[in-house]
Structure to design on (110 residues):
């Protein structure tokens, strides 16, 4: 009962113009939205200041979030279909910065 579920992913879209991290949250517990909001805010403030993506409620097509029994989020860290973002996502430095931003959001939630 004293846990959260965080799933980390990379996104891909049909056009290369899509950019930015985005958090999806479980519809099962209100705290999932709060967790998602804090993680998104941490990513924007610490790593992607131009990111205007809003968090989104998961649908039944996202099995893990739709069936979660603890506060749960899925973090899309960026788009592999965007060349500039892909190049950043490949680096150890950016991966560490993203992990730090996600963990800061989790810590703020806790």
């Amino acid at each position: 009962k004293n846990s959260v579920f965080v799933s980390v992913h990379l996104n891909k879209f049909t056009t290369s113009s899509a950019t930015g991290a985005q958090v999806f949250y479980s519809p099962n517990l209100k705290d999932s939205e709060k967790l998602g909001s804090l993680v998104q805010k941490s990513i924007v403030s610490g790593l992607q200041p131009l990111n205007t993506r809003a968090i989104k409620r998961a649908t039944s097509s996202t099995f893990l979030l739709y069936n979660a029994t603890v506060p749960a989020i899925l973090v899309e860290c960026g788009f592999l279909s965007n060349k500039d973002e892909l190049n950043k996502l490949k680096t150890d430095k950016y991966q560490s910065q993203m992990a730090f931003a996600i963990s800061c959001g989790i810590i703020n939630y806790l």
